[in-house]
UniProtKB/TrEMBL annotation:
Domain of life: Eukaryota
PROSITE patterns according to UniProt: PROKAR_LIPOPROTEIN
Record's protein name: Uncharacterized protein
Organism for this UniProt entry: Accipiter nisus
Keywords, ordered alphabetically: Disulfide bond, Glycoprotein, Membrane, Signal
Amino acid sequence: MKMHPPGLLFFFLAACFTPTADCQSQKLKSMRCNIKTMFTMNTACTACAAAPKMVCPKGWLKTTQGLGVRNCRYTVKLGENTLSQPGCHHICKKEIEEKKCCPGFWGTECYGKFFIFLRCSLAVK
């Protein structure tokens, strides 16, 4: 039985796990197709005098100023009677970005070539 010198085995392993130009270019070719969605909501309708103090929920941005928008009604209960009053509300917006890979790409970094990805991830660490 013929034994191979340890240097040959070391050379073979080094060649398999050394980062190549493919690894460098693959890192630049991460293919993300993130989807941004804008959500809009209104604050509760209230008396226009109180509207400037209305705040949007945490993480939302108030896009109206001052009294806000005057196109809503709120109710006030006085004894047995309920009155409907014209009021004001504010508009709040929030953008959410959903991280997605483009078709044909996958993983946390959205790489498409599994074998190059595997080789690069093993060699870089």
